[in-house]
Specification:
The complex is a heterodimer of chains A (512) and B (439). Chain A has 512 residues and is mainly α. Chain A has helices at residues 2-25, 35-41, 45-54, 66-86, 99-106, 110-113, 115-134, 137-140, 161-179, 185-190, 192-199, 205-227, 232-258, 279-287, 290-314, 317-320, 325-332, 345-375, 385-407, 409-412, 416-421, 423-434, 452-455, 463-467, 483-487, and strands spanning 30-32, 62-63, 107-108, 379-380, 383-384, 438-442, 493-497. Among the domains of chain A are: 30-108, no CATH class; 437-497, Alpha-Beta Plaits (2-Layer Sandwich). In chain A, the strands form 3 sheets. Chain A has a 3-stranded antiparallel sheet. Chain B has 11 helices and 25 strands. The mean pLDDT of chain B is 95. Classes of the chains: A mainly alpha (512), B alpha/beta (439).
Chain lengths: 512, 439
């Protein structure tokens, strides 16, 4: 007992040291922009000619931290663009953001030279520490059952100070990832060798993101296996989301890149994959020939035929809690936070308005993009279609899905994006609500209104409100995670696919 | 018409809601326990940190105003049935046209010496929970007296804080007056697995305090002393009707009511834990202290008050509980010893955490009822089979349509059937091949 608790503490310590080291890497290392790096990185000849004199002051100068380096580069780069704009040489203005690549390539010294070792020391060690922290639960609490002890008494899982700090850290990470990856260049260096091995090219910030995403899911997946070891539905579902994330979202696209084919996540679909119909993506696919056309057809087939059929038979859970990457993170990293979702009627009203609003926005945006693609006319009803698409990418793709969607886990529960923002979830939900065999059946009058089901619903469904009336739970938002049925102390709830006809039947005791 | 309900537990609130559904009467619900209705069944989850108080409220706070159900937090001390007036705190007078008493229970105490020491308490109300929080802070050992459902819940609560629990029960084995021997032993094994020290045939003699008036240890009837800083009293509950004892209302253990839940006073009704039926039906308790029966009584009473006078019929008996990690569901009348005209089939999984029992008549093999431990079963199916006196062979052959466990959970139908066929070849059931299906 004591030894196990020591192991737990040791695990936590290792985790924190790993994370601490990882964060401190951002301030480490030296940077020197050599002419060779410059030539390698700026391959566009016009940019090369323009930038060379502008960056002259930086060449071969050694910087001891990335901030100063990036700041000097940005100053020089923006200065050049300002200059070009003031001279009205619009065609020469550089829109490519080189700051990240230049920074990464200019890194010299310790981090650069020991990147793989550091990757093991920081990331793998943190994951190992996490496992060391979680696995003793198997022995400390050896009888399988529901393990939600002290969730509302632990700071991180009940909106304590640590939860706010964690949330802020996640949001910052997303902001840098999307908007200023140059500052994360040391992190990206760590996974360079992995990227070269899998995809044949150096790591981008998206490779790092995919790598971290998979690592976090696998580590927290182990916690799911331990916590829900008495429930086969949870075990299989966890295995499924881990498989789809690691193989479909991470390995296959990277291997395709290595084979010089378009990097495709076969399970991602429009409108979650909002850029599916963007011109550059369609053009890439079409230029690939048969394989490209096949990919295009598969992508369309998924949401036109796949969604209605699969949702009819299994409910939207087949995607949201068995396949989807966002769902996968929510069901692993997000599981300790699921109880923080708002169950009020007010929240439900906002949810319906916002999530369906995003779906409408996605449809309009895609229509506009396709309109421009086919007609060549960049304006639809006087609005620049490119700007619609940019707004969608910024507000929905980056702010909502990324920064808020994951960043708010510790504050509003694990499914903020899925519940309030995901247009695909909205679409799946409409089918689930009106044409599906899926329901959560309430077992007669056995409900004791304890509220475990509602408390642990990550989608903020007030499950109890239905169960205590003997009604089945049929809601557009239900992702079918099955936790309500798992935590119910009286065996009142069961997720199942049965005949459509009696879905809405309410329990009535037999007449005697 | 102004209807006043004393008590905002499941019975009082359900009757209020159903009266609102059926009528436009003025409704006032009075409670001195909490401002709003909360689920008493979830108190243990607050203690264990699974939930917060707010999660135990089945309705949001705006619900009451929207449905014109007035709530008042005060305590009723006295009732003048002639003038139809309730006397509340500060001598406030509240009038009514019809009065519904749903004051629930209070924990039983058997006048043990030392029972009022700090650290000795029952668990029923939200105030009891707060007290328990205070009484169990930083303690190491506890004693629980009484082997029923509240006892095991208290034990689960305490072990969640690593407090050592000695669990005193009067009977030979756990909940023996309700559970048949096999089921009782199965639960006992699970109790032991959680390192709860169950002490059968042990009764409390005396609670001893220290110089600060705090529980220090207890003495059992056979003279054993057990050190503890907390004594959980869980020897059942009794109707909470002390304030009515000297009134004109006829009471025994509870408020006496007829099958329409009417008391001896005109326009006064009682239901739930505090009501006692004058003439209970055979095999039915005079006082029904269950969540489910409280709800059922309330629905019946609302009908009587708002539309047609309706007799309370309990319907086919069912109940459920959870013993630590093992869920229990029962359908039909399942006595701890099958009655003389019944056959009983019991199956237990080799690992000893899952079992089921089915009772059926000796004469024609028609189904009487089920006990399930670690198996979830559909109420509609069980009720239909029991109501229709379905033959045991049919029930056993079709058990699988009643299973309600989560998808992909192992189904033990085949093992159950082969064991059944061995014991009851006269009701032989062909074992169907298992179908493999996805989802």
């Amino acid at each position: 007992m004591k030894a196990l608790k020591t192991i737990r503490k040791l695990g936590l310590l290792i985790f924190l040291v790993g994370i601490g080291l990882f964060i401190s890497l951002l301030g480490l290392g030296s940077y020197k922009l050599s002419p060779q790096v410059f030539d390698q990185t700026i391959t566009n000849t016009q940019h090369h000619t323009l930038l060379k004199p502008a960056l002259k002051g930086m060449l071969n100068k050694e910087y001891t931290n990335s901030m100063a380096f990036i700041s000097d580069f940005n100053q020089a780069f923006n200065g050049l663009n300002e200059d070009l704009k003031s001279k009205q040489q619009w065609d020469k203005v550089i829109y490519t953001d080189y700051s990240y690549l230049i920074t990464k390539h200019s890194a010299i010294g310790f981090v650069k030279n020991h990147s793989t070792l550091l990757c093991y020391l920081c990331l793998m060690m943190s994951a190992f520490g996490g496992l060391l922290f979680m696995i003793p639960d198997l022995f400390l609490d050896p009888v399988p059952g529901i393990k939600n002890k002290n969730i509302f008494k632990t700071q991180i899982t009940s909106r304590g100070l640590i939860a706010f700090l964690f949330s802020a850290a996640l949001i910052l990470f997303y902001i840098f990832l999307y908007k200023a990856p140059a500052y994360l260049s040391n992190w990206i260096l760590l996974v360079d060798n992995f990227s070269i091995a899998i995809s044949g090219s150096e790591a981008s910030q998206w490779f790092l993101y995919g790598f971290l995403y998979g690592l976090v899911m696998l580590t927290m997946g182990v916690k799911m296996y331990i916590k829900y070891r008495n429930n086969n539905y949870q075990l299989l579902r966890t295995t499924s989301v881990l498989f789809f994330q690691v193989v479909f979202a991470f390995l296959i696209p990277n291997i395709l890149t290595k084979l010089q084919m378009p990097a495709v996540d076969f399970k991602n679909m429009w409108p979650l994959d909002y850029s599916f119909f963007f011109d550059y993506r369609i053009n890439t696919l079409i230029s690939e020939g048969v394989f490209g056309y096949w990919l295009l057809a598969w992508g369309i087939f998924l949401f036109v035929v796949g969604v209605p059929i699969m949702v009819y038979f299994f409910g939207k859970r087949w995607y949201c809690s068995w396949v989807c990457g966002c769902g996968g993170l929510a069901e692993t990293l997000g599981d300790p936070f699921r109880q923080l979702s708002d169950k009020s009627l007010k929240a439900w009203k906002y949810e319906r308005f916002i999530v369906n609003g995003v779906l409408v926005f996605a449809i309009i945006m895609t229509f506009a993009v396709l309109y421009s693609y086919f007609t060549g006319n960049s304006k639809l009803l006087g609005i620049d279609t490119y700007s619609i698409r940019e707004h969608y990418a910024f507000f929905i793709g980056f702010i909502f899905a990324g920064a808020i969607g994951t960043g708010f886990y510790p504050l509003m529960g694990s499914r903020v994006w899925c519940r309030f923002g995901c247009p695909l979830a909205a679409y799946l939900g409409i089918v689930q609500r009106f044409k599906s065999r899926f329901r959560i059946t309430t077992n007669g009058a056995q409900c004791i209104s304890c509220g475990n089901c509602s408390t642990y619903c990550e989608m903020g469904i007030d499950v109890r409100a239905y169960a205590q009336k003997g009604e089945n739970i049929i809601r557009a938002s239900c992702v079918g995670c099955g936790i309500c049925a798992a935590v119910c102390p009286r065996g009142v709830l069961k997720l199942e696919n049965l005949a459509e006809s009696n879905r809405f039947e309410t329990y009535a005791p037999p007449q005697q | 018409m102004k209807i006043v309900i004393i008590g905002n537990g499941i019975s009082g609130i359900t009757v209020a809601r159903h009266i609102r559904k059926l009528s436009e009467h003025e409704i006032l619900v009075i409670s001195s326990e909490s401002d709003h209705f909360f689920s008493r069944t979830a108190l243990m989850y607050i203690y264990m940190g699974h939930m917060k108080y707010e999660h135990t409220k089945p309705y949001e706070d705006w619900f009451w105003e929207k449905n014109r159900i007035n709530l008042k937090n005060t305590h009723i001390h006295q009732i003048d049935f002639l003038k139809k007036i309730l006397i509340a705190n500060n001598q406030e007078e509240i009038t009514y046209d019809k009065l519904i008493i749903a004051t629930g229970s209070k924990p039983n105490h058997f006048a043990w010496p030392g029972q009022n020491l700090k650290g000795a308490q029952g668990l029923y109300s939200i105030q009891d929970l707060e007290l328990m929080e205070e009484n169990t802070a930083n303690i190491k050992e506890a004693v629980i007296v009484g082997g029923g459902l509240i006892g095991i819940e208290m034990a689960e609560m305490l072990i969640s804080r690593n407090i050592k629990v000695n669990f005193l029960i009067r009977e030979k084995s756990y909940w023996q007056n309700v559970l048949p021997q096999e089921e009782s032993l199965l639960v006992e094994k699970h109790i032991a697995e959680h390192h709860i020290h169950l002490m059968p045939e042990t009764e409390l003699q005396e609670i001893i305090g220290d110089e600060n008036g705090r529980v220090k240890n207890i003495i059992t009837k056979n003279g054993k002393s057990i050190d503890c800083q907390f004594v959980g009293i869980a020897v059942g509950v009794a109707p909470n009707i002390d304030f009515l004892k000297s009134s004109a209302l006829e009471t025994d253990k509870g408020i006496l009511v007829n099958d329409y839940l009417e008391t001896n006073q005109p326009n006064v009704y009682a239901l739930g834990d505090c009501a006692q039926f004058i003439k209970p039906k055979e095999n039915q308790a005079a006082i029904e202290q269950l969540w489910y029966t409280g709800k059922l009584q309330a629905e019946t009473l609302a009908k009587t008050i708002c539309t047609t006078k309706t007799k309370y019929e309990r319907g086919i008996w069912f109940n459920s509980a959870k013993f630590l990690d093992i869920e229990y569901q029962t359908y039909g009348l399942m006595l701890n010893k099958p009655s003389s005209d019944e056959e009983s089939f019991y199956w237990e999984h080799p690992k000893g955490k899952i079992c089921m029992r089915v009772n059926f008549t000796k004469t024609d093999g028609s189904l009487r009822g089920f006990n399930f431990f670690g198996i979830r079963f559909r109420q509609v199916i069980a009720e239909k089979w029991i109501a229709e006196n379905t033959s045991i062979a049919f029930c056993m052959a079709n058990l699988n349509i009643g299973f309600f466990d989560p998808e992909f959970q192992k189904n033990h139908h085949a093992e159950i059937l082969s064991s059944f066929n061995e014991q009851f070849p006269q009701h032989f059931v062909a074992v169907k091949k298992k179908k493999f299906f996805l989802f």
